[in-house]
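Table S2 (text version). Query chain:
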Amino acid sequence: MAKSNLQISDPDFVPVTVEGEMRPSRWVISVDHASNTVPPCVNGGDLQIAPEDMARHIAYDVGALGVARHLGVLMDAPVVASTFSRLVIDPNRGEDDPTLVMKLYDGTIIPTNRHVDEVEVERRLAKFHRPYHNALAQVIAARPNPVLLAVHSFTPQFRGRALRPWQVGVLYAQDTRLAAPLLDLLRGEADLCVGDNQPYSGALGGDAMDRHGLQTGRPHVLIELRNDLIERPEDQKAWAVRLAPLLDQALRNAQV
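Corresponding structure-token output:
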């Protein structure tokens, strides 16, 4: 395999991994919230919340990385994944987004973040957020006519709120070239309740899809999987096996 030319900053913590960088597919798979790791340079690696909270969806997208890795193999596509918790800084937010560094999330206060100032936000942007996006941009730019797939997961229920009925959601903003045919195919699966821009809207200015897809005119789509369905490695593989042919068919149907 050829040597990687990726340039990643900060030798004491690598904020992004790239698997299968030389795979030839048009697809590039990203996992913005792949890890619940707190780097040592952030309060000694401790956000001062309980381990059970660090294992919840507030810290990372449970199961998303496993699904993405299997999809990468099945679709012969590179997988670009963050290695830091979304509670450190959220790579799926624009740099000016007020939720970039969360101080309270789904009922849990994040003590280490309570008094984060502009200087500390800038430090985290430079160490984690920007290197992740730079690596993703490099992988995308290295292939002709790329297509971006973001893999996320969502909790079945926020505290004090109703249960979410969807097993899978397809998120998008103005560009529906890929999202629309994928929604049609998923709706054809009789056992699935499919979210159309659910459980969230995909129209979030400055997020990863906006930055690497919408602003550049590249075909792109974001998939959300309910995290209780992909907690186990065997379920992650099963969902990847199910989704891979649907994604490839959606791309063919999109004719982009």
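Notes on Table S2: The radius of gyration is 17 Å. The first helix runs from residue 51 to 54.
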